[in-house]
């Protein structure tokens, strides 16, 4: 339900005004609870920047990887795309990292 709220705020609709910051907030709530589509959505947001969130290749990789581990096919594509960008070695190491610290990365803008 939280990811769905993120989607609604992302595009607006159902009587709800579009809000980037609320979309990110709801995606974050769902993502830290393990929702793979919300994790993928955050990966997309961090990859391109926007929504009040600074572009971050390392966070994009981490969120894509977390979703990909759960079998999210679009997240696997996102990971492959990020890997082809020849990212710095420190970012490439995140392909192998665990995700115990992910919740601290997901603090939506206010």
Written account of the structure:
Helix content is 62%, strand content 0%. The chain is globular and about 40 Å long. With 110 residues, it is mainly α. It starts with a helix and ends in a 5-residue tail after the last helix. It is built from 7 helices and no strands. The model is unreliable at 90-110 (pLDDT under 50).
Question: Could you write a compact summary of the structure shown?
Answer:
This protein is mainly α. The protein has 7 helices and no strands.
What topology emerges from the helices and strands here?
Layout (H helix, E strand, L loop, with lengths): L1 H10 L8 H12 L4 H13 L8 H13 L3 H12 L4 H4 L9 H4 L5
Helix pairs in contact: 1-2, 2-3, 3-4, 3-5, 4-5
Count every beta strand, where a strand is a DSSP E run of 2 or more residues.
0
The level of helicity is 55-70%
What would you call the quaternary organization?
A: single chain
State the distance separating the first and last CA atoms. Answer: 22 Å
Assign an overall shape.
globular
Main sheet properties? none
Backbone CA Rg: 13 Å
Structural class: mainly alpha
DSSP strand content: under 5%
| DSSP helical segment count | 7
Elements, N to C (H/E): HHHHHHH
């Amino acid at each position: 339900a939280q990811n769905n709220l993120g989607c609604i705020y992302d595009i607006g609709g159902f009587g709800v005004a579009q809000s980037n910051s609320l979309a990110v907030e709801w995606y974050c709530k769902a993502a830290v609870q393990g929702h793979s589509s919300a994790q993928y959505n955050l990966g997309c947001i961090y990859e391109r920047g926007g929504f009040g969130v600074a572009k971050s290749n390392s966070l994009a990789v981490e969120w894509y990887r977390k979703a990909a581990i759960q079998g999210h096919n679009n997240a696997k594509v996102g990971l492959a795309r990020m890997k082809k960008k020849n990212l710095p070695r420190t970012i490439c190491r995140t392909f192998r990292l665990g995700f115990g610290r992910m919740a601290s990365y997901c603090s939506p803008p206010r």
